[in-house]
Each structure stands twice: as structure tokens, then as C-alpha cells.
């Protein structure tokens, strides 16, 4: 008898977050929750629209209020208009374990960039991304991940280390996501593709 299919929540329990990732996640969460002093006291330990508006503006974006609300809505499981620590953790686990490309990633992309940007200066270098990328993808996939973020050249023409802004980072990530989706569409058209998204052996 086949094993009963696990529910999405049961699968999430098995998703591992490495200690260095968790350390960075905690640092970013604390950074995000203290930007809006006008939040109600009951929500001071949650990420709110005002927090995200200020952070995104600092990063060079000009978000509309509706866009910020959408970022929160995508991961706001209890629909209170804020992102709690549990919802934040769940969002991260969903995105790092997603193989379909269907998980909302607006907040994830912001959090990921800030995990790289340890001093919250608004730009990241290749060196700053290495630790997280290595922990998550391993040495064998490290170069591919760096190229996906920074392109083929890791340094500028003058030899200095290349830096990218949040806007540039999101642009690279979105282009990669589009290419990955195109690959999945092609794979689904193959005769050896089964319902689980894997090749028949």
C-alpha cells in the first residue's frame, strides 16, 4: 500500500533551516519590525506595511501602498494585515523548498537580499552572498548561484568587487524565475514526464 501523501504543513516540518540561515533570518526580522513607530502596540513585534514601505524606499524603490499590502497579504495566513514571526518562518520554508515556482516570493526576495546585506547598506557584494549560498546550495552549485545574481563577471573593470542594488537583484531573480518556468513547461511536454514532475525511470 502506497504511503499516504503528506500534507503541505507536514512537509514544511521537514524543511531544514541551517543555523547560519536562522541567524540571518532573525537579524532581518528584527530589522524589519522596528521601522514604523506608529504601529499598534499589539503588533510591534510583527512586520507591517509601514515597516516595508520605509525599507523599500531606503532600497531605492517607490512602492505604492497597494503593492506593500500585497507583499504582506501573500504570506499573511491569519489576515491581520501584518507578518508575524511564525508567518515569516513559514514563508521562508515554503520558498526554499518550492520546486514549482508557484510560491509568492515578493517578501522572500526582500528578506533574502537583506540576509546578504549584513550591515543594511542597500548593496551587496559577491563575498557577502557566499556564506548563505554555500550553506544552502553546496560547493557544487555555488558558482551557478553567484552567476545568477551577479552575472559572469564578479568584479568591475577596475578590479573592484561588483556590488548590486536591491532593484538589480530582483531583476536578476525574476529573469531567472522566468527561465526556470520555461524549462518546467518544456519538461511537462516530454513523454517521460509523470504527474509528480519527475522523469519516469
UniProtKB/TrEMBL annotation:
What Gene3D superfamilies does the database record attribute to this sequence? EF-hand
Question: Which GO molecular function annotation, any one, does this entry have?
Answer: calcium ion binding
Q: Quote the InterPro entries the UniProt record gives.
A: EF-hand-dom_pair, EF_hand_dom
The source's domain of life comes to: Eukaryota
The record's SUPFAM superfamilies line, in alphabetical order, gives: EF-hand
Q: Which residues form the EF-hand domain?
A: 44-95
Give the protein's recorded name. EF-hand domain-containing protein
Amino acid at each position: 500500500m502506497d504511503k499516504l501523501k503528506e500534507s503541505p504543513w507536514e512537509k514544511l516540518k521537514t524543511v531544514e533551516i541551517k543555523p547560519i540561515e536562522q541567524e540571518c533570518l532573525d537579524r532581518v526580522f528584527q530589522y524589519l519590525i522596528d521601522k514604523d513607530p506608529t504601529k499598534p502596540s499589539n503588533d510591534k513585534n510583527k512586520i507591517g506595511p509601514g515597516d516595508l514601505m520605509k525599507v523599500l524606499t531606503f532600497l531605492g524603490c517607490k512602492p505604492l501602498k497597494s503593492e506593500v499590502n500585497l507583499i504582506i497579504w501573500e504570506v499573511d495566513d491569519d489576515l491581520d494585515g501584518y507578518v508575524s514571526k511564525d508567518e515569516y518562518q513559514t514563508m521562508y520554508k515554503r520558498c526554499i523548498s518550492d520546486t514549482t515556482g508557484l510560491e509568492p516570493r515578493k517578501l522572500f526576495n526582500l528578506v533574502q537580499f537583506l540576509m546578504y546585506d549584513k550591515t543594511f547598506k542597500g548593496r551587496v557584494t559577491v563575498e557577502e552572498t557566499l556564506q548563505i549560498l554555500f550553506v544552502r546550495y553546496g560547493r557544487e552549485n555555488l558558482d551557478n548561484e553567484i552567476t545568477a545574481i551577479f552575472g559572469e563577471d564578479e568584479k568591475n573593470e577596475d578590479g573592484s568587487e561588483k556590488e548590486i542594488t536591491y532593484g538589480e537583484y530582483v531583476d536578476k531573480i525574476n529573469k531567472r524565475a522566468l527561465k526556470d518556468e520555461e524549462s518546467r513547461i518544456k519538461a511537462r511536454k516530454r513523454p517521460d514526464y509523470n504527474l509528480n514532475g519527475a522523469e519516469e525511470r
